[in-house]
Design a protein that fits this description.
The protein is of the alpha+beta class and 284 residues long. It contains 8 helices and 15 strands. The chain folds into 2 domains: 124 residues, Gcn5-related N-acetyltransferase (GNAT) (Aminopeptidase, 3-Layer(aba) Sandwich); 142 residues, Gcn5-related N-acetyltransferase (GNAT) (Aminopeptidase), CATH 3.40.630.
C-alpha cells in the first residue's frame, strides 16, 4: 500500500476487491480496456496480472493494469477512472513504474482505442509510436495456394509450444504472444490452423468470428521460411474455410510499418477501411 500526496491510497488488486472493482468499472466515467482475448474478471484474478487500485477513503476511484511483461515489454490493458482527474492516473503510475522496473520491464505500450486517454498519458511521458491499420475484405473469389510438401491442418493444444516459437520469432516486442495468451486465443478461435513442412510447424493463423464476419487475428510465418507463399497459403485456406460456413467478409489489423503484410492482404482483396488506432509508448 502507498499513500500519495494527493490523498489517494494505492493498493495492488486482490480478488477480495472484485466486487468494488466491478462497481468502479460499472460507474466509471472514463475507461480504457484493451484485452484482446481475455475476459476482464478472469484476467484480473490471474497471478501474473499487474493491477492496482486507487482509493479515496474506502472507495476505489481509479484502476490501472498491465499485461505480464514479455521480453521486457508490456501493454497497459486497463485504465478506469471514477473521477475526471489526472491526479488519479499520476498516482497509479507512480506505483506502476517501480513495480515494472523491478521485473526488468523496459518499455510500456498503450493502444489508444479512445481519444480521451491521450491527455492523461502524455504528461506521464508517453509518446506516439505508430498506427495500427484495419483492412476489410468483402465477398470475392479466393485463389487457392498450394505449396509442395506443405500441409495445413487444424491446430491442437500439443502445437502451442511450436506456435509460440514461430510467433516470437516472427514478431518483435510488443507484438509477441506469451504461452498463456496463445492458449486462450486458441480456445476462442473460430479457425486456427498451422502449416507444416517435414513435420515442423513453419506458420500459423488464428481467426475469430462475430456473427457473419470473420477477423484474422494472427498470421505468423518463420522468418527463414518467408517469401515462399506460406502466409498466402494459410490465408487462402482460412478464407475458404469460412466460405464453407457462408461467411464471406473478413477484417484484419496490422501495423502501418508492416508493408509486407499489407501487400499480402491487398493481394487477397483487403482494403483499408479508415479505422486506424495510434500506439503510444514510454521507455522506462
Amino acid at each position: 500500500m502507498k499513500e500519495t500526496t494527493s490523498g489517494l491510497r494505492i493498493t495492488p488488486y486482490k480478488r477480495r476487491y472484485r466486487q468494488v472493482t466491478n462497481d468502479l468499472l460499472f460507474f466509471s466515467r472514463l475507461q480504457h480496456i484493451h484485452l484482446d482475448w481475455q475476459n476482464l474478471e478472469q484476467w484480473l484474478d490471474e497471478p501474473s496480472t499487474f493491477a492496482w487500485l486507487a482509493w479515496r477513503g474506502n472507495t476505489p476511484v481509479g484502476a490501472m493494469a498491465t499485461s505480464e511483461p514479455l521480453n521486457h515489454t508490456c501493454w497497459i490493458r486497463l485504465i478506469a477512472l471514477h473521477e475526471n482527474r489526472q491526479a488519479i492516473v499520476a498516482a497509479l503510475w507512480q506505483v506502476v513504474v517501480p513495480a515494472l522496473r523491478a521485473v526488468d520491464t523496459h518499455t510500456v505500450y498503450l493502444l489508444a482505442t479512445h481519444d480521451w486517454v491521450l491527455p492523461y498519458i502524455e504528461p506521464l511521458g508517453f509518446a506516439y509510436d505508430e498506427h495500427i491499420v484495419t483492412m476489410f475484405r468483402t465477398r470475392q473469389r479466393v485463389v487457392s495456394v498450394d505449396i509442395e510438401d506443405m500441409i495445413i491442418r487444424v491446430v491442437s493444444l500439443n502445437d502451442v509450444a511450436s506456435m509460440v516459437m514461430v510467433d516470437n520469432t516472427a514478431f518483435l516486442p510488443p507484438w509477441q504472444l506469451a504461452d498463456d495468451e496463445l492458449r486462450q486465443a486458441i480456445r476462442i478461435a473460430a479457425a486456427c490452423t498451422i502449416a507444416e513442412i517435414d513435420g515442423a510447424v513453419v506458420g500459423y493463423q488464428l481467426s475469430t468470428q462475430y456473427q457473419n464476419s470473420a477477423h484474422l487475428a494472427r498470421l505468423a510465418v518463420l522468418p527463414s521460411m518467408q517469401g515462399r507463399g506460406i502466409g498466402a497459403a494459410l490465408l487462402s485456406d482460412v478464407l475458404q474455410r469460412f466460405e464453407r460456413r457462408s461467411i464471406y467478409t473478413m477484417s484484419v489489423n496490422t501495423q502501418m510499418s508492416n508493408e509486407r503484410s499489407q501487400q499480402l492482404y491487398y493481394r487477397f482483396g483487403f482494403r483499408r477501411n479508415g479505422y486506424d488506432l495510434p500506439v503510444w509508448k514510454i521507455n522506462l
